[in-house]
Amino acid sequence: MSCIFCKIINGEIPSNKVYEDDKVLAFNDINPVAPFHVLVIPKKHYESILDIDDNDMEIIAHIHKVINKLVKEKGYDKTGFRIINNCGSDGCQEVKHIHYHVLAGKKLDWYDACK
Asked: DSSP class of residue 7?
């Protein structure tokens, strides 16, 4: 598979992991737009939220549990954070593997994913 995130999951491409379990991987974004900019991705490949059928939808809840854990560990639950999921070309999704950006560590301006 040519998906860059699948290659990161498989260890073919290195990443700076911040969390991993049997369902998801979280790692630092290589082009951060905030002091804390982590990507959280499912290990199973889904192109976007539209590709997750009802039987697999619990992965989204699990991703949000992981996000809660990460921001609480860093104290961003007290100051605030942003979660972004881009879908499709008009949504500026660059990597066709569902992923969530978690941004924190400063007052966040409007974020244009298409920059």
From this structure: H
Stated pTM of the model: 0.93
DSSP code at position 17: E
d(CA 77, CA 65): 13
Reply yes or no on whether 37 is catalytic: no
| Structure token pair of residue 40 | 């959280």
Give the burial string for 74-102 (b: 16+ CB within 10 Å, else e): bebeeeebeeebbeeeeeebeebbbbbbb
Active-site residue (options: 37, 97, 99, 101):
99
**How far apart, in whole angstroms, are the C-alpha atoms of residue 64 and residue 55?**
17
Please state, in angstroms and rounded to a whole number, the distance separating the CA atoms of residues 55 and 46.
Answer: 13
At a CB cut-off of 8 Å and minimum separation 6, what does 62 contact? 23, 24, 42
Rounded-to-integer distance, Cα 44 and Cα 106, Å: 32
Report the chain (115 residues): mean pLDDT per 10 consecutive residues.
Answer: 92 96 98 96 97 96 98 97 94 94 92 63
